[in-house]
């Protein structure tokens, strides 16, 4: 009996144009200025800065560079922060909340400038983003938020009432939403490949398929044990996120890997794309477990992603969940085939804010909570300047205490399926209570 396949390919769509490959084996330098753990967006961005400052620096990645979240995400430059402004104010104070909001704008501009100045060919377009809401009362709150963004930070943001929604998206599912024009889309695997290119050209040495086993303090230096042998370094920067393993147990007790899954349609007719995605914008929702979606860079397909409650294997249920979500948004796509589906890990933690922190001499740049396209390069770069002692260039609202540890957790997220089911129930209740 032939196994049912919901999509033709179970590998990332992005790998078609930018395959993830191992790098040539490099000799192991026994004494270094700096070791970086992880060669995703954060590790490469940090390594680029450090190598250009003349430091001897090597990055170690247990997989092929970019094989994790850096080439598996949706490619949306949202720079989202999970807690809202009121929550951040309550937890950390108004001064911190204002600084975090302001830094999001700076971080996006940093990434856009990085793409331009380094000549990174990654299909970037500043398209804007539409965020849909499920009820008219939600719209009022969202429109006010857009007004605050425009007033406080000078971001071009505005509410879109239900009667004007069709100009931005071809669905009746929402009851309006908001647009912000400082968000765009890129090809995430190309973005990583281009960062890799300039980082290697700068002198960063990268050891792919080389796992870090432990980091131990020895006098004024660190001994970093890897699968290729041990090296000594004056400083260590850990840039792992959703793929953090036992090499850094302190961080592992604080980051929870959560699967994020994506589906991609087959090529759609130009008139269908023009009707469903009239402005080729990035799309998101106001629900707890809302979908994120977008046209592919060539404008011929729709990519849609969301959280996946599975923990092992590659079950069909999460794929069907996204497939049904796509059809709920766009009923005319009911019979459309899917070309690709895949998943990758994002890292969540208790306060859901990206983080730079130092513990026992090791600096960490991590905790991107599903928004690493913007936060990983930004936080990686700030952390590199922290290592270099560049006070002003290292300054960041995210440089403060480590995330709190999670009770009864040491790397096995046994509780995540129940949490995600709970969020889905909350979304269902909110949907039925919404004034639609």
From TrEMBL:
Give the InterPro entries listed for this entry.
FAD-dep_OxRdtase, FAD/NAD-bd_sf
Q: In the record, what terms sit under GO molecular function?
A: oxidoreductase activity
Alphabetical keyword list: Oxidoreductase
Q: Which GO terms describe its cellular component?
A: cytoplasm
Matches recorded under Pfam families = DAO
Q: Does the keyword Oxidoreductase apply?
A: yes
On whether Aminoacyl-tRNA synthetase is a keyword of this UniProt record, the answer is no
**Can you give the residue ranges of the FAD dependent oxidoreductase domain?**
33-384
Question: Where would one find the signal peptide in this protein?
Answer: none
In Swiss-Prot or TrEMBL terms, this protein is called Glycine/D-amino acid oxidase-like deaminating enzyme
Q: Which organism is it from?
A: Rhizobium azibense
Q: What is the lineage of its organism?
A: Bacteria, Pseudomonadati, Pseudomonadota, Alphaproteobacteria, Hyphomicrobiales
């Amino acid at each position: 009996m032939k196994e049912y396949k919901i999509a033709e390919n179970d590998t990332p769509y992005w790998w078609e144009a930018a395959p993830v490959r191992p790098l040539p084996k490099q000799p192991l330098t026994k004494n270094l200025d700096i070791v970086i753990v992880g060669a995703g967006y954060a590790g490469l961005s940090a390594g680029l800065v450090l190598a250009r400052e003349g430091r001897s620096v090597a990055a170690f990645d247990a997989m092929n560079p970019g094989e994790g979240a850096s080439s598996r995400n949706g490619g949306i430059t949202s720079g989202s922060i999970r807690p809202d402004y009121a929550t951040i104010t309550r937890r950390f104070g108004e001064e911190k909340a204002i600084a975090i909001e302001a830094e999001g704008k700076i971080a996006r501009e940093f990434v856009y400038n990085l793409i331009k100045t380094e000549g990174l060919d990654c299909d970037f377009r500043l398209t804007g983003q539409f965020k849909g809401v499920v009820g008219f009362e939600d719209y009022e709150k969202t429109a006010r938020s857009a007004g605050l963004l425009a007033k406080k930070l000078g971001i071009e943001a505005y509410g879109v009432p239900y009667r004007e929604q069709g100009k931005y998206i071809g669905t009746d599912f929402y009851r309006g939403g908001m647009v912000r024009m400082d968000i765009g889309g890129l090809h995430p695997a190309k973005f990583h490949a281009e960062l890799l290119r300039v980082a290697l050209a700068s002198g960063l040495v990268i050891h792919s398929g080389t796992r870090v086993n432990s980091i131990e303090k020895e006098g004024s230096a660190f001994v970093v044990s890897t699968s290729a042998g041990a090296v000594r370094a004056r400083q260590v920067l850990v840039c792992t996120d959703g793929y953090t393993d036992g090499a850094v147990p302190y961080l592992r007790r604080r980051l929870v890997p959560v699967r994020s899954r994506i589906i991609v349609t087959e090529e759609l007719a130009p008139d269908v794309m023009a009707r469903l995605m009239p402005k080729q914008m990035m799309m998101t929702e106001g629900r707890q477990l809302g979908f994120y979606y977008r046209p592919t860079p060539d404008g011929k397909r729709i990519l849609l992603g969301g959280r996946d409650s599975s923990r092992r294997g590659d079950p069909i249920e999460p794929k069907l969940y996204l497939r049904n979500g796509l059809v709920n948004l766009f009923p005319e796509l009911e019979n459309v085939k899917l070309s690709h589906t895949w998943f990758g890990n994002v890292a969540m933690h208790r306060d859901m804010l990206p983080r730079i922190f130092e513990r026992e001499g090791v600096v960490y740049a991590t905790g991107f909570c599903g928004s690493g396209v913007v936060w990983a390069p930004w936080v990686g770069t700030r952390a590199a300047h922290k290592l270099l002692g560049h006070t002003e260039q290292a300054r960041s609202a995210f440089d403060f205490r480590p995330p709190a540890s999670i009770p009864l957790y040491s790397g096995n997220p046994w509780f995540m399926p129940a949490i995600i089911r709970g969020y889905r129930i909350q979304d269902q209740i909110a949907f039925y209570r919404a004034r639609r």
